[in-house]
Amino acid sequence: MDLVAAYAYPETGQWVRANMIASTDGAAAMQGTSAGLSGAADHRLFGLLRSLADVILVGAQTVRAEGYGPARTQSEWADLRVGRPPTPAIAVISRRIDLDLSSRLFTSAPSHARTIVITTRAAAPSRRAQAAQHADVMIAGEEFADLKTVITSLAHRGMRRILTEGGPRLLGELATAGLLDELCLTVSPLLVGGASRIMACAPLASPRRLRLAHVFEADGSLFCRYVRMNEGSR
């Protein structure tokens, strides 16, 4: 399979793609993180999806749990970045900027991919000012971040190809708001137990049917790509 063609974004318009992993029995994490569910083929796809994206959107809890740093250059997919910054920026949503601003996500981000902090007016001005020393700060709501504003604001910055890596709460909020265009789901060949899921939210008022664009297998893992039924850029 031509992976680049299989995962190409629409040529125009903004597009929100999620990349998640779950065990065969539905667990979204093992010992608190998703790393233990992943394998070599999933790591390769992870690198491809990041290389195709303009920005990587994540929630604050995921940044803390997974120890996020700046996106790294992927030599295998370097040609996909021609004419664009060498790596995509990380944009993290944090209502009150409850983040370690001394971590490498902020202190080591390159100038071409400065980390973006998306927050609210409820965040203390002092925290906003501290974050602004190492990151671009975006206000996207009063008490809670308005995800429609977030997506639109990123697109206005030229970041129309949006990749979210969760976590479950952010994915649930995007789905609830009708902003999720695509879900890339890796099904890992592990039985884990536990109650975690890739999406954490109240039941949707109306379940959203997705179209299976493709599925392929490698090393026992299934790689599924689902898109919204009315496929096409918004």
Whole-number count of domains:
1
Order of SSEs: HEHEHEHEHEHEHEEE
What is the fold-level CATH name, i.e. the topology? Dihydrofolate Reductase, subunit A
Give, in spatial order, the strands making up the sheet with the most strands: 5-4-3-2-6-1-7-9-8
Classify the beta-strand content into a percent band: 15-25%
Biggest beta sheet summary = 9 strands, mixed
CATH superfamily: Dihydrofolate Reductase, subunit A
CATH class: Alpha Beta
Helix-strand makeup class: alpha/beta
Q: Count of helical segments?
A: 7
Arithmetic mean of pLDDT: 94
User: Which regions are unreliable across 5 or more consecutive residues at pLDDT < 50?
Assistant: none
What shape does the CA trace take? globular
Gap between N and C termini, in Å?
A: 27 Å
Question: What is the gyration radius calculated from CA atoms?
Answer: 17 Å
Based on the coordinates given, report the CATH architecture. Answer: 3-Layer(aba) Sandwich
Helix content: 10-25%
Based on DSSP secondary structure assignment, what is the total number of beta strands? 9
SSE topology:
Blueprint: H1 3-6, E1 15-23, H2 40-52, E2 55-59, H3 60-66, E3 89-93, H4 104-107, E4 116-119, H5 125-131, E5 136-139, H6 147-156, E6 161-164, H7 168-176, E7 182-188, E8 210-218, E9 221-228
Parallel strand pairs: 1-6, 1-7, 2-3, 2-6, 3-4, 4-5
Antiparallel strand pairs: 7-9, 8-9
